[in-house]
Design goal:
Elements: E1 5-6, H1 19-22, H2 26-41, E2 42-47, E3 58-62, H3 69-80, E4 87-89, H4 98-104, E5 108-110, H5 117-129, E6 133-135, H6 156-164, E7 168-174, H7 176-179, E8 193-199, H8 214-236
Parallel strand pairs: 1-2, 2-8, 3-6, 3-7, 4-5
Antiparallel strand pairs: 7-8
């Protein structure tokens, strides 16, 4: 498998392996199965990889515009040195084989609504207590923005970070849309796709410490979404919109598929 490249330098310094990745685990099997297949159609190019923490708990908050994003970002996290754990749609856990793999690898099922939705946050907090990284898509669904910029976020990622006093690290990727377009059903391995992944500095939420009211959570989430948008703008070579797309102002639902 050809090594991934770095946009930071032609030959990036080899970083030490995290203890989490060095220990034998089910992730070794997943990596052996998934990465060779993914590498057929994907070449990674990392930006600011030194910002990705190799130890300790944190929330990784990436943008979301393709159904294949979790595989792309999960593989990226593994390449960068950590075992990826996601908040994933509960329906995926009911799929034969897929559900078993998700449960065995410690992924977290999320119900869209109701009291069970709080169970996901509690499960994520348990992983955080063990020093794990939890990947949370703040948008909660594929962006509705017609130009694939991040849309308005939900507060779950920020709540976990503030309640546990851990960093929330923004991330952005670009190029996934050529591998699998938004709402697409087919993966295009050829020609080989370059996917750029940028890691941001932890978002400073110190002024929200001890505040979990809806106003604070919404404001903190907006700050995180701005950081993600800035990273995406860097990858695209464009200036992101000043405000995040709000589905409710465009007669759109915030979850599920929307081909509008």
């Amino acid at each position: 498998m050809p090594p991934e490249t770095s946009a930071d330098s032609p030959r990036p310094e080899r970083r030490r392996r995290s203890s989490e990745k060095s220990r034998p685990s089910f992730f070794w099997l997943l990596a052996a199965l998934v990465l060779p297949i993914l590498s057929i159609g994907v070449k990674y190019r990392f930006h600011h990889r030194d910002r990705f923490p190799l130890e300790g708990a944190f929330v990784l908050a990436p943008n979301h515009f393709s159904e294949i994003d979790p595989i792309v970002m999960g593989a990226a996290a593994w390449k960068l040195g950590r075992a990826p754990r996601f908040l994933a749609k509960a329906s995926l856990f009911r799929i034969p084989v897929v559900g078993w793999m998700l449960r065995t690898s410690g992924q977290i099922p999320v119900e869209r609504a109701g009291s069970k939705s709080h169970n996901a946050l509690r499960a994520a907090e348990e992983l955080v207590e063990k020093g794990r990284v939890v990947i949370v898509y703040p948008e909660g669904s594929l962006t509705r923005d017609p130009d694939l910029w991040p849309m308005r976020g939900k507060t779950g990622a920020v709540r976990i970070a503030l309640e546990r006093g851990i960093p929330i690290v923004p991330a952005a990727h670009w190029g996934t849309q050529t591998l699998m377009p938004r709402y697409g059903k087919k993966i295009s391995f050829f020609p080989r796709n370059t996917i750029d992944v940028a890691i941001g500095e932890p978002v400073d939420l110190s002024d929200f410490a001890g505040r979990l009211d809806s106003s604070a959570l919404n404001e903190a989430t907006a700050r995180v979404m701005d950081a993600i948008a800035e990273l995406l703008g860097e990858l695209r070579g464009e200036t992101p919109p000043e405000t995040r797309w709000d589905p409710t102002k465009h007669a759109q639902t915030e979850t599920g598929r929307f081909d509008g």
